[in-house]
Amino acid sequence: MEEESAFDNDNAKRMLRPIRRLKRNKKVPLIAIVGRPNVGKSALVNRIAGTQSGGAIVADESGITRDRTYRPAEFLGEKFQIVDTGGLVFDDNDALFAKEIREQAMIAIDEAAGVILVVDGQCGLTNMDQELADFLRTQITREIPVHVAVNKCESEKTGAVAASEFWSLGLGEPFAVSALHGVGTAELLEAMFDSIQQKKTAIEGFGTKAKRLADVKKKMKLNPKKRLPGETEDEALLRKYGLGPTEESVIAEYEEALAAFDDEEQAEEIAVAIIGRPNVGKSSLLNTLFGSTRAIVSDIAGTTRDSIDAFMERPAPEGTNEPPTIYRFIDTAGIRRKGKVDFGPEFFMVNRALRAIRRADVVLLVLDATTGVTEQDRILAQKVADDGRACVLVCNKWDAVANKDSTTLDKSVKYLREELPQVRWAPIIFTSAATGQRVGKIYGAVDDAIGAHRKRVSTAVLNEVLRDATLWQPPPSKRNGSQAKIYYCNQVSTRPPTIVVFCNDPSMINDSYRRYLDRKFRESLEGFEATPIRWIFRGRRNRDVMRQKNMNGNPGDGGIGTSFPFPYAD
Question: CA–CA separation, 471 vs 103, rounded Å?
């Protein structure tokens, strides 16, 4: 159609820029957590990653986790990623989304440098545990290490007894752990690090930082009577007679071992949260952007539970030293009305989604083109504006709109502007996640939104616009004749742009005049199309007021006069 082809030509250059998946850092290996449903996999992930608050959703029912989620973790100075998966079931009739969950778990196993099979120590060995162990032993253990974690073993006395039953799985020593209290997790990770070193499934030297530092500390003691770790007899004999490593070389080795614990510089990430009502196509949009099935998609509302991160990369232009642009897309659960959400898994799902808005740089508010704007869409738009996040309106399912003509696009834009005044400044993209129509334009819109969110304008330009705005429409006044006076303004911060306006009485500046100033600033200044502007009206301080008033003037002049040098001197 003509209007669609004209709309597509706006940002054609941006679509030609190469966008690809972010290559995984080989220095940060993955450890996959697998097991049958409801054995405590997510609780163990939260324990290892240290995210008991705000981590994976945990509840006393099976099937909470569906998609694979990645959490950064650190142990013994080594950084790695822990991958949480849904409960593995080999029979598709035993659980909802069993096939999709199994596919997600298999992808996590293929990416992993090690696998931890979690079983329930209180329930004991089950047939499903045996099936999983047989699969891992025959298909996986040849290439990557697999360890068994017997969860729910809080008691040290009975934990070893409960774990002994799982020797029959044929995966080596089972470790009695407690995701609730953290018992046995250190021993489990130490064994996993040793197995990764033996199998060489990670980069060379992974898991040796702590051992290397301990060995160097022993060298610094320079005790000639004892042989140092990793030292041959000849080296020990030479050191005994003062021909071994010098003090300077040992100190340099110690500093090098310490430097291995320093954090490496990482490229800045642009966090993009995908939010909206249930079943508007958020996960489908993420899969289209990612190029594969990153999140489970179905017609059932509430399919997505946890927040899912997907990373994309825009390489730097050729011939420049600029770092690549990394996009972190955060798929969230559908947010229903507050009155319909009961305390339980859905409460934590909504909590994670709202938290994703606060930690995002740009929010993609996904709307359903077939149903129009609802009250929940307005609530979410107001939430985005209140949190000060840059926003892009993505009207999805555009291919399903019937009877489109040359005026449908303009009418839809006008309708969205009228129905969503909370984000009237946000750009609108009409997309179809099913066909991929205009999905590539999202990257250009995100780049523009980031630029607007971080924009800074000089004080001189701001005050020139403020002067024109106040001359065109003076500030409001009260019935008693008192007039609001605006003196000057300046921008104090970005993300979002925050402008402080100094006036005589902030209480006299009503919401209508605030909206007027916001509109005039957007009309006069370019670059604020995709971000809210936070306005702060500040009155004069009491110290400044008293400094202008002078109590040494003539009687009846209201204290206005001069006190320097002497008011009554001739």
Answer: 64
Crossing angle of the two packed helices 185-199 and 41-49, in degrees rounded to 10? 90
Residue-by-residue DSSP string for 10-66: TTHHHHHS--EEPPPPTTS-EEEEE-STTSSHHHHHHHHHT-TTTSS---SSTT---
pLDDT in tens, 123-140: 889 998 998 999 999 888
| Among the listed residues 69, 428, 436, 396, the one whose alpha carbon sits nearest the alpha carbon of residue 287 | 436
Please, are residues 216 and 253 in contact by the beta-carbon 8 Å criterion?
Answer: yes
d(CA 407, CA 88): 50
CA dist., res. 172 & res. 175, Å (int):
9
Q: How far apart are CA 60 and CA 120, in angstroms?
A: 13
Which residue, among 161, 163, 51, has the nearest Cα to 117 in the 3D structure? 163
Burial label, 156 (beta-carbon count in 10 A; 0-12, 13-18, 19+):
exposed
- Burial bucket for residue 249 (CB in 10 Å: 0-12, 13-18, 19+): exposed
- Report d(CA 148, CA 166) in Å as an integer: 8
Q: What is the per-residue pLDDT across 243-270, written as a single tens digit (0 to 9) for each? A: 555 556 666 766 666 666 666 666 778 8
The three-state secondary structure class of 316 is: coil
What's the Rg (C-alpha) of the chain?
31
The distance in angstroms from the start CA to the end CA of the chain is 87
Looking at 122-241, list the stretches that DSSP marks H as alpha helix, in order from N- to C-terminal side. Answer: 127-135, 156-164, 185-199, 209-221, 233-240
**Are the beta carbons of 104 and 33 closer than 8 angstroms?**
no
Q: Tell whether the torsion through CA atoms of 101, 102, 104 and 109 is positive or negative.
A: positive
Instruction: Scan for tokens 């800045």, then name that residue.
Output: 268
Other beta carbons within 10 Å of 331: 28
